[in-house]
Amino acid sequence: PELVVAQHQERFFPQARLVPNIIPTEDSLYAPLGEKESTPLNIFFSPTLGFSAWGVPKGLERFATKGSPEVKRLLKRLNARYSDLNVLLCSNMPRKECLEEKQKSHIVIDDLVTGGFHLVGLEGLSQGLPVLGYLDARSNRVLSELTGASALPWVNIRLEEVEPVLEALIFNADLRAELGKDARDWMVRYYNEKDLVKHYVDAYEDLLENPELLSVSRFDVDNPQIYWSFKSSYDIFYLARAGVSGPSCNTLCRLRAYETDEITQNRVISTYDLAHSGNSFAKWLYTNRFKRIDPNVDFFHPDRARYLMAKYSFALPYIQGKHVLELGCGVGYGAAYLKEQGAASVTAVDNDMLAIAYAEENYARDGVSFAESDAQRIELPRASQDVVIAYDLLECVDCDGTLLERCRQLLKPGGVLLVSVCDLWHEKMENYWLRKYTAQSLLNLLHDKFSRIEMFRCFSSLSAFDEVSFSQPAIIPLNSFTCSLKRGESLLALCTLCE
Known about the structure:
The chain is an alpha/beta fold. It folds into three domains: 3-204, 3-Layer(aba) Sandwich (Rossmann fold); 247-278, no CATH class; 302-496, Vaccinia Virus protein VP39 (Rossmann fold), CATH 3.40.50.
């Protein structure tokens, strides 16, 4: 004989008797806290595992995720828009502390991904809080049959649609109060321990008096229609939301079977995975691939990746043991590389909130700090930086002279500025430029701020110079200020501030 809690676990134990996952609703920690300060508004989220909504490792069921990375990014976006918002993340915390944190919150997020629900949701409901979670039809049916309730108190919403719902709750305190009151009333009426314990009493009485009742399967797993109705259909719905089911999957399977080279296969498959991923950052990176580039992601051409990293490798002799500021850091790969290769510290700045969020998630390192800021107005002490790097930024800012003057102010005497411009890898990249430079116009602009300037020409494997092609990226001294750049080339300048 088996017992199983009436949550997602029941789908895997057809022979087991359903019982509730009881919580002590009358305990003070599980009761409403009473009057709370309206600001800051606390949103509580408690992920156990860090898997993406659509990135559960093989061998684990989809119920192993709550979409932690996606929810955290969502909360980060909301936090950036609403200064009075406070996110309470509870992970690997003692249970009592976790309950106390939840009790202080105004909104609770449970599982927005899998269709199941967890103790965190039940606890939030008992504490009189609006709880957001996605309960699929199976969860609704099982919980309704167990409690006798015709309606459930969750704000039933999926991850894909939750952002505007959260915003509505943030702005409407009366709505939050009504939803919380309804949640508490429902728990007291339908999910109180005095009534729910009877399920356990009945199970043990049947074990003693009618044991045959505990060996009856609740559903026939060998019947395809029944198995579809309680499990496989929901698994397919989940995959459909992730964008990885249907004919397109067959296309990828055929691609893997073709006699194509491994690099081409990986790039095409990786591009598809990013474009159709449930990972919002992956979609964002794919959509912005001509502006935001991560050379460590397969769908970017490997020659492109080597070309970008060559510029950072060029900086290595100047950053050893130095404090480095990178302006226009993008997704952060360069900042992480500079720190790993010997910089004392790296402060990396970009005005794109999502680029910084991507950087913090993928390239966080000790000694590297990412900040969302306008490069022209960054607030740092004068003469505080040994090295400033501004790759592919000058052509994108409103006033290039203002940016260079700010760089000069931030550098210590003897400090170094590295800039590159006019990366002509793809014509679509020019859509983000406000201006173009020739070698001479760049030199003239820099001479207004710096007395010592060395100019270089950057070549990729797509380039040819004096009829010589490059198998690897190359950065060589500029020998002509009248040269015209070709695809796969750019200009780089090394500027030193006199002591």
